[in-house]
Write a structure and sequence with these properties.
mainly alpha; 10 helices
Amino acid sequence: WEVATITHALALIKNKYFAGNIDVNKAVVTALYHDCSEVITGDMPSPIKYHSEAITTAYKAIEHQAEVELLELLPSDLKPEFSSLLISKNIETEIHLLIKAADTISAYLKCKMEVTAGNQEFAKAAIDIENKLKKLESQEVNYFIEHFAGSYSLTLDELLQ
């Protein structure tokens, strides 16, 4: 859900401020399904998933097979519509990049929240993910971080003031 709402914001920001032409609804619906293959594969932590090229390649193959198997569970009349949501290779590049950015922002916000709560186990990850976000050189990501990220660490009282 959080990745979908962040994707929504990123698509709107891109369209409104940076001359984008994203189909916002398609981006959001696609984001809702972005981790469906994990029903089969489980959630592998990024440091392991991207530890080596061999592991990444193997995991991507497993992930693709899981996507195909999930698609095959659906009635045949629904498969064409779901194929563009469930099969990563069928997702438009621009939408895929927004969803990946939203997923990274979500991980960053989680790390920041943990550090704010005193859990220093997430401090290095927060720095690493923040650097990863900067390397994206994405105007909409930078805008989101500048205007919205800070509010995620506020208490309800602080948010309402």
